[in-house]
Write a structure and sequence with these properties.
By secondary structure, the chain is α/β, with parallel strands linked by helices. The chain has one domain: 3-Layer(aba) Sandwich (Rossmann fold). 45% of the residues lie in helices and 17% in strands. It contains 10 helices and 6 strands. Strands 3-2-1-4-5-6 form a 6-stranded parallel sheet. The N and C termini lie far apart (38 Å).
């Protein structure tokens, strides 16, 4: 059974479905309210991304952070027969789950993705992956339309060019997503240096 704070948080997010979030409406992350969505970080596609190494490194960090806080992870692959599987550095961290295949640019236009989101039932969705101005943007826009609170991790998304990455982030921010970073997310989840996992997780960003 969901606790009262969780139901209140979820209700508040859904009530904002038809209006933009104001700048002051952010709130601290609560791990039980979050899920992580990894979008299309595949072999052929990722090879041509701007600052690829940083993208892969930060996506891997996000997956490790999610596991540490028991945050569910969903991962998508765009036309995998053409673009290849998810890169091995990330796939190896996702053992025990399978990717959701898609051809639409938005994950929300795939029945399996929507079903999984509903099963997880988390009001806050953390996004990472590629490309910022295409699949990440369209997924974010559809999630916001569905009443989800979206946080996009700027140093864990990319596009083939810096310009398109920045345009995608700007559009998502304008549409109501919160733009954050891997390290910012980590410390919002930890909240206190006395957290039992502080040393373990802080070591990941050194």
């Amino acid at each position: 059974m969901k606790s009262k704070w969780f139901l209140s948080l979820k209700s508040g997010i859904r009530q904002r479905n038809n209006r933009k979030w104001s700048e002051g409406e952010g709130f601290w992350f609560i791990n039980k309210a979050c899920c992580l969505v990894l979008i299309d970080v595949q072999e052929k596609l990722s090879a041509v991304m701007h600052e690829r190494a940083g993208l892969i490194r930060n996506c891997a960090l996000l997956i490790q952070i999610a596991h540490a806080f028991e945050i569910p992870v969903l991962w998508c692959e765009q036309a995998p027969k053409a673009l290849g599987p998810t890169v091995s550095d990330l796939k190896n961290l996702l053992c025990g789950s399978s990717p959701i295949e898609k051809t639409s640019f938005s994950g929300c236009r795939v029945e399996a993705f929507v079903k999984r989101l509903e099963e997880i039932d988390r009001p806050i969705v953390i996004l990472c992956g590629i490309e910022s101005h295409v699949c990440v943007y369209q997924t974010a826009a559809d999630l916001i339309d569905r009443g989800r609170r979206v946080h996009v991790i700027a140093d864990a998304v990319s596009s083939r060019t810096r310009e398109n990455k920045e345009i995608g982030l700007a559009r998502m921010s304008r549409d109501g997503a919160v733009v954050s970073s891997t390290e910012m997310l980590l410390f919002e989840l930890l909240k206190d240096a006395r957290h039992e996992k502080f040393r373990q997780l802080a070591a990941l960003i050194k």
